């Protein structure tokens, strides 16, 4: 660990050096908290902590860029370890070559990944490798896997969560064997999917839950799917969630963004950019939700919604890579292997496409009529029959009259 | 600039080194983009950019810690400059000693501050000095100062913004002199306070806006204040906003957290922690809103709501400094000079205080009955008549029966 520290001790973080008491951002204090794992110290370390966070890395090479990357990640981990020092979480590095046997035993297969051991479970972190994202991920992981809903206001809170998958079950009490199965199932998906439960008849009635029933809510859908054949075993619940895990419309989240990006359909993503806090973005998102609700039974459709506010550092990169303006809503198709893309023509953000127009466009994407390859020749030959990369020319020919019923 | 770079080139940022196309976090490329400002190059640089971002710093000292801090900030600025390279924003450093004359001319008075020149306006940034926060701040600053509301869905979006001050005006059209005054006023507060306008009669009717009227919405209040004596000049609008800028309940935001923290009342803040995405936190926030609505006319009351999700890196620091558990809602009084604090006793997060109980507590704080000093002796003498720092013992004696009407 020493070499890395010589270079970067105290350099990270961003740290406001203001003197105000009550708002002090942490700076790395230079103390070594992240240790190298070996077969020798493994058992002892595992016993010591409630949670063990393992960074599984390729052998540190002599390549300078790779070294910097590695040191960077090490400092991020050190800072996270420092910040969470009182939470009984261990942090270790696992060298893929030196500790190949141990890694195999632990089931690690992707170098550069971060794994967390919690009891007999292994959770993979596949999100933005930043201190704040990691801290929040770990804090979520040490909370109870099931959140209890006790009263009307908490039902409201539950109902307001619309941008992620959620499950809720109604059980007799905490000792119910079905509640226990539900808890065990929740642990499989913690912290990525939220599980709620109630023991309150009033709450159950408001949510139309029968005893021992669990409802599954897809993001942005008003009506849940009642999981069939209650009561359920842990395995049945886990299987159901796994089968329904890819929604029609989902929000890209820092904590599992890479996993989501890898979960493409036939090598592409339909990506929609909309800033929810902006009136145009909000409006576009409402239209997207409508499209998702109308097509929730189509297994070939999964739209990825990105709120630029969640990724300020990527906004400029996306604008350059996709040649679009992210001050207004956008929807397009992105090829995940080369980031080639085509985008729907939205001439004016005061005149967004209707749900019907969006559905037609989506259909053209799914049928292959709109795709990322068709315009490539055009770009190179510069035929000049349209003004650039914004759209597939088919689109323009078909949809001349999109001025009418926007409201 | 060179010295700093030798140490930290490429060390910042966090950067995921994944190879997925479409999600590449930026790493600093080592190129110098931030320049030192002097009277010589000032005019030329100012002319070159739409926006000029100036870091006004004390002379770099020989103290190692101060040097590191300075270098850190420099790298953050370099990364921000790199990311926003195509947006025509300039980034400069202003040495407080070397360029004292220039700084005075520019009206800079707080060393360590970041100022942004936009036309003839100077905007001070007093938030978290992190690349993502800064990028978002600057992107917000180059957007139009007024957002136009065109239709029903956008009204919905407008109505959903409840956690910050917002203004909306109804004007004849873009050429209206009153709209222009409104735009000018908006620029005084951009990007901290959102200004909206509509030219649509239907929208105006829905929001009960008369022609040339501007309504001011305090955070979390259902009903706006109609600014009196329309139509208004720019100065009248600016004055009104300045007078009403401190709300009864406000959310701590990364982009102006230090400014907010400095805006204490008699050296204290009433601070409430509530995680909005959590059912208990949501419930507590609803109760807080109730208290705020009931007391909106009390100029001595300003509650600071902190959502721990907005500040993952500060959670552990707050837990240690304030000796509280942030997995559940908390409300307390914090002395801003020494961060000494007392917290309301909330024995069980399934049994949160009612709005009435909270109001009683707030009254005791405002009257000085509950304060951060009373328990200090107790702590030192360790009289042992209560279990720690959680509360003022007065509180415990008075409120034995808080088990009843929570729902």
TrEMBL record, chains A, B:
Q: Which positions make up the signal peptide?
A: 1-19
Which one Pfam family would you cite for this protein?
Answer: Calsequestrin
- Top-level taxon in the UniProt lineage: Eukaryota
Q: Which InterPro entries match?
A: Calsequestrin, Calsequestrin_C, Calsequestrin_CS, Calsequestrin_middle_dom, Calsequestrin_N, Thioredoxin-like_sf
Q: Where in the cell is it found?
A: Sarcoplasmic reticulum lumen
Compositionally biased residues, Acidic residues: 373-407
Listed GO MF terms: calcium ion binding
- What GO cellular-component annotations does this UniProt entry give? sarcoplasmic reticulum lumen; Z disc
Ribosomal protein as UniProt keyword: no
Region annotation (Disordered) maps to 363-407
The GO biological-process annotations, alphabetized, read as: regulation of cardiac muscle contraction by regulation of the release of sequestered calcium ion
Swiss-Prot/TrEMBL keywords: Calcium, Glycoprotein, Muscle protein, Sarcoplasmic reticulum, Signal
Q: Which PROSITE patterns match?
A: CALSEQUESTRIN_2 (PS00864), PROKAR_LIPOPROTEIN (PS51257)
Q: How does it assemble?
A: Monomer, homodimer and homooligomer. Mostly monomeric in the absence of calcium. Forms higher oligomers in a calcium-dependent manner. Dimers associate to form tetramers, that then form linear homomer chains. Interacts with ASPH and TRDN.
Q: What does this protein do?
A: Calsequestrin is a high-capacity, moderate affinity, calcium-binding protein and thus acts as an internal calcium store in muscle. Calcium ions are bound by clusters of acidic residues at the protein surface, especially at the interface between subunits. Can bind around 60 Ca(2+) ions. Regulates the release of lumenal Ca(2+) via the calcium release channel RYR2; this plays an important role in triggering muscle contraction. Plays a role in excitation-contraction coupling in the heart and in regulating the rate of heart beats.
Protein family (similarity comment): Belongs to the calsequestrin family.
- Protein name in UniProt: Calsequestrin
